[in-house]
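Moderator note: this is an archived Q&A kept for reference. The question asked for a predicted structure of one protein chain; the sequence and the answer are reproduced below.
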Amino acid sequence: MRRQLKIIVLFLVVMTVITGVIYPLVITGIAQAAFNHQANGSLIEDNGKVLGSELIGQPFSDPKYFWGRLSATSAEAEWPRLGRVPP
């Protein structure tokens, strides 16, 4: 009984290290090497200052996709909130 318990605990520790540490580090390394821009969030920079991500606020026109807020996806978006002007 004790021998089986030791084997089970050892197996748990080994699999935790493999799936929780080694595998994520290997996949992250491959992603950084092969797709550096995308793996780091596809950030948009202007004069060294991060403005946002290329992946957030994408305009979609096909009805099968979730549509984002117009103010986040379109440069022509109006400020409709009771006629207030943004600061």
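Archived answer notes: The helical segments are 2-34, 36-39, 70-73.
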